[in-house]
Design goal:
alpha+beta, Outer membrane phospholipase (ompla), Chain C, 12-stranded antiparallel β-barrel, 4 helices, about 20% helix, elongated, DUF1207, DUF1207 domain-containing protein
């Protein structure tokens, strides 16, 4: 922008000086007054000024042409490689979603645990709009997460780890969004837990599943969703069907730096536990990037029902904890 102002300013100066010199008018400049008294040098000055004027005039024409060229329509659809933004977002209160998070909680059995998730969801290819906040069209996503539970009362021993990897086609139009894809889940017991519990019989809980989901954005703050997973391969006590549904309230803050409250609840039903419902609820404060649409949340988490750690999938738990969640 500064370069453009410089060029335009130079054009204006030359546009005033060259005609004045050509007419022989008086110009209030010591340099030009001095040279006017030296008549032999005047044609050389005029020629140099004229050449400069022609050069800068051409540059000005190029700048004007660029500014007049139509700007890309942010709502137009095109192909985008590694796009910014997502058409499908992880469920806020679901404990098995790809994100970065940490939750420390105490359960009704007097245990104190630390659930840590390291993962994320990214777009690979999009055909649609270029928006990062509310993109439209379809997108190919990749997701992964390692979900680890540590026992804080036993030297932070690793109790178990669930690994999730998947890829999905996601799409969004208006208030509706959908996903269809594949994901793998495998669960592993920590070595320290096996040493402390030598009689524990490990299960090889694994699923390979097709998944389909849909969500409805009722307004800028309220989202409803549901999904079904159909495992075409299951072992270690895992079974074919799994369902999730929930509601999220996450308004956009009027002042991004101030954040806004959020609340979310998720219900999970799995055939492996005879569809006994697992409930997770969250309440807290959310900060959202105004350009990236990424969020970081601080709050409370309550859970009741079958555990989310699938190595112990027959275990029931009830707990309350505090957490931090970062979502893409």
């Amino acid at each position: 922008m500064g370069k453009q102002f410089g060029v335009l300013s130079l054009v204006c100066v030359c546009g005033l000086l060259v005609p004045a010199i050509s007419r022989g008018d008086d110009v209030d400049s010591p340099l030009l007054t001095k040279h006017k008294t030296q008549q032999g040098e005047l044609p050389s000055i005029m020629g140099a000024a004229d050449r400069l004027f022609q050069q800068t005039s051409s540059q000005c024409d190029a700048i004007c042409d660029d500014s007049a060229r139509p700007q890309p329509n942010p709502r137009s659809r095109d192909w985008h490689l590694l796009p910014d933004g997502l058409m499908w977002h992880s469920y806020l209160a679901a404990p098995h979603e790809p994100r970065i998070s940490t939750v420390i909680f105490g359960d009704t059995s007097d245990g104190i645990f630390w659930d840590a998730t390291l993962g994320g969801r990214v777009g690979l290819i999009r055909y649609g709009t270029q928006d990062t906040i509310r993109p439209r069209g379809w997108q190919w996503d990749l997701e992964a997460a390692a979900i680890t539970r540590l026992d804080l009362l036993h030297a932070e021993d690793v109790e178990s780890m669930d690994y999730r990897f998947g890829t999905e086609i996601t799409a969004a139009e208006g208030a509706w969004a959908m996903k269809f894809g594949y994901f793998h889940v495998s669960s592993h017991v920590g070595d320290e837990y096996l040493i402390r519990n030598p009689t524990f019989k490990r299960v090889n809980y694994v699923t390979e599943s097709w998944i389909v989901g849909t969500s409805y954005q009722a307004n800028d703050s309220l989202r409803l969703y549901g999904e079904m997973a159909n495992a075409f391969r299951a072992s270690g006590g895992a079974k074919r069907y799994q369902f999730q549904t929930g509601i999220e309230y996450a308004p956009r803050a009027k002042v991004p730096a101030g954040g806004a409250p959020f609340a979310a609840i998720n219900w999970n039903f799995r055939e492996a536990v005879d569809y006994d419902v697992s409930t997770t609820a969250q309440l807290g404060w959310l900060f959202r990037g105004p350009d990236s649409n990424r969020t970081i949340r601080f709050g409370l988490q309550y859970g009741a029902g079958p555990t989310s750690q699938f190595s112990f999938f027959t275990r029931r738990e009830e707990y309350l904890g505090v957490g931090v969640w970062f979502d893409y």
